[in-house]
Specification:
globular, 214 residues, 34% helix, 30% strand, Archaeosine Trna-guanine Transglycosylase, Chain: A, domain 4, alpha+beta, 2 domains, 5-stranded mixed beta barrel, LON domain-like fold
Length: 214
């Protein structure tokens, strides 16, 4: 299943070049986030407190990437080259020095270049990757939507951004890739993949191997 990085990126880098590059701050995490996904975050490091404050004031997005090397705190980590832009949809400060925020992922991007600021915040020049158009979920993969529906109902529908598109291969694939117990490297492969039918086929196979399909 793992593909050579060059092969994985070549398909959508040509699409990405159609978009102008922009500079955004990055928040590297031990998490892979997919478009349409919601994520709660606790922010306490000064560099990220400043970043969130600026994003709220200027109504700007920032980027979340899986960490390739390093850790979430301390020395700036090395991010994977593909991540997701996110928008802050809610925030609160329940205790001094800790900011609780909720974000929603909007669009994938590819990092062209990055640098670390003096405060440790990573700034990156990125190009957005074209959205995958909605695609009806094939009949042979309807079981994937059934499993996803059960997972979401168990976790709580409020944790997911509406609409819940159980008939869309792209949406079902993104949500399963977020929720199933996959290795982080596999999740990253899923994010970089630009073929929703290949993604759902791989996920269907995983569910079958785990004995989760009747």
């Amino acid at each position: 299943m793992p593909l050579d990085l060059k092969q994985r990126l070549s398909g959508f880098l040509s699409q990405a070049r159609q978009h102008a590059a922009c500079e955004i701050p990055l928040f590297p995490l031990d998490t892979v986030l997919f478009p349409g996904g919601k994520l709660p975050l606790k922010v306490f490091e000064p560099r990220y407190m400043e970043m969130v404050s600026a994003c709220l004031q200027e109504k700007k997005a920032f980027g979340i990437c899986l960490i390739r090397a390093g850790q979430e705190t301390g020395v700036p980590a090395q991010p994977e080259p593909v991540g997701c832009m996110v928008e802050i949809i809610d925030w609160d400060m329940r205790q001094p020095g800790v900011l609780d925020i909720a974000v929603i992922a909007t669009q994938r991007f590819h990092i062209e270049a990055s640098r670390a600021e003096k405060n440790g915040l990573i700034m990156a020049r990125v190009v957005s990757i074209a959205e995958e158009p909605p695609l009806p979920l094939p009949k042979q993969h309807q079981a994937c939507a059934t499993i996803l529906r059960r997972i979401i109902e168990h976790l709580g529908v409020e944790r997911f951004a509406p609409p819940l598109r159980y008939d869309d291969s792209v949406w079902v694939g993104y949500r399963l890739a977020e929720l199933l117990p996959l290795k982080r490297s596999v999740r990253q492969n899923m994010l970089e993949m630009n073929d929703s039918l290949v993604r759902i086929e791989i996920l269907h196979r995983f569910l079958s191997q785990q004995g989760l399909l009747a």
